[in-house]
Model the fold of this input.
Amino acid sequence: MSNEQRFRGIPVSGGVAVARACLLNEYRHSDAEPRAIAREEIPREQQRLHTALDRVAQRLGQVKEQVAARLGTAEAEIFVAQKLIVEDVSLRTAMDEIIAREACNAEAAAASALDAFERRLRAVEDEYLSARASDITEIKRCVLDALGSMNPLLRCEGQDSCEHGRNRVVVALELTPAMTLELDAEQARAFVTERGGRTSHAAILARALGIPAVTGIPRVHEQIPCGTTVLVNGDTGEVVTSPSANTLARHPVTSRARTVTAGDEPVESFAVMANINLSSDAGAALEVKAEGIGLYRTEFECIAAGRLLTEDEQYERYAAVLAHMKGRPVYFRLLDVGGDKRAPFLDLPPEENPYLGCRGARFLLARPDVLAPQARALVRASRHGVVNVIHPMIVDFDQFIALKNLFSESASGLQGGTVRHGIMFEVPSACLQAAALLEEADFATIGSNDLIQYLFVVDRDNEAVARDYTPDRPVFWDVLRALADAARAAGKPLSLCGEIGGDPRYISRLMDLGITSVSASVRLVARVRTAARNYRAGNNYTI
Ligand code: PEP
Ligand code: MG
Done:
């Protein structure tokens, strides 16, 4: 008799894997009890605390380096901030004082000082600072771990060692960036979590690593015992424990995305470009032989730096990307802030509904002081190669004209090369005006991530509604078809740079619409080419 147990979640990264489960320990501090100590133990306890804080600071420094190397400097910033908090002298003094005053152990003092700090942050009416409160929770976990000298994250009951997820299906409530780095994520076989939508950190990491991931299974980390064999189908969302021979036969395991091989050469008349966030990512794009940068999300340069970059700093980065790409096309998106792309450094007034607030093109029109240095930097960079400017979140024709004019006025008097202006189709109203917009624009690209969000009124980052966040609705494809027809009629190039452009399941449909270029994460470029090549050759998609 089969003792299979079946779960159904949200597929967020494709492929099929079978391996033993490795549970992340969410309750790792349950034994870190507050305890009274004798007065003569106070100095020793304070010393213990300092050693633990030093260890955590050192570890955060290492994690920061790893994140910067693996995911980019923007993602690494959070660990810089956490390290600064751990090293903060006044926080240490407060903890020392609690130990001395209350004659309690280091665990109690650390928890009490950090809890008080967290409460103060949560009370501040500043979105950025109150969001930092969850960093304090993370820091508290790390400090208590260090005090308990426990294996910081992983619990594999009954096993000698779980090898930090190596060759395992990692099962967790949620994978935070810090946790994924504690794991040997590169070697994990799959991720299964309760929390996190398609654009959550774990989902993006899984897709980048080419491993299956399923989210949205309630209490999954309490239901799958550590060490159990689990099948994860990241294409359908099925997760099966102790799978039978029959089940295994029905879900053939797929191999992980590879690095570039000869077969990943460009496909004729179907260009696969790369999406990048930082100028330093251009090298990786070139390595996979991307046929250009289809989307350079320039706002990430500022998010990574924690401030607006000066005109000169922006110019240097843009010129470097153009030089790196050696004549291949580069599409620079103007700073796209607001909604999911929070920009605390801009000190914007809080909004009731930031997804429908001062964001994208609307923000740039309201802030010529932010647009001007970028416009000038882009025009200067165009001396090194053609600059394609993507206008984000355009809602209609008049707005596009207004933004284009403001761009030109901001850069007037500067000598540059060719600058082309295009729009991102990601707001339904703009799609309805596609013909007029494409007459005016030099090119367009479809931002399917936001287009799905605004077309179906479904938050792209909320796992509670993630089942509704899907391109698998006929209306979505009707919109894409209308855009493709309008581009053809206007004789203007149209590409697609949202996540579906990196998903092999949709490549044939995009090709059928006549879309001849997509832009995807660097790691997915080879997969997309394989799908396109197979479709051309008359095969169904295979990975
Ligand atoms: C999109 O919306 O599809 C897109 C490509 O941009 P972003 O994901 O940065 O919003
Ligand atoms: Mg978008």
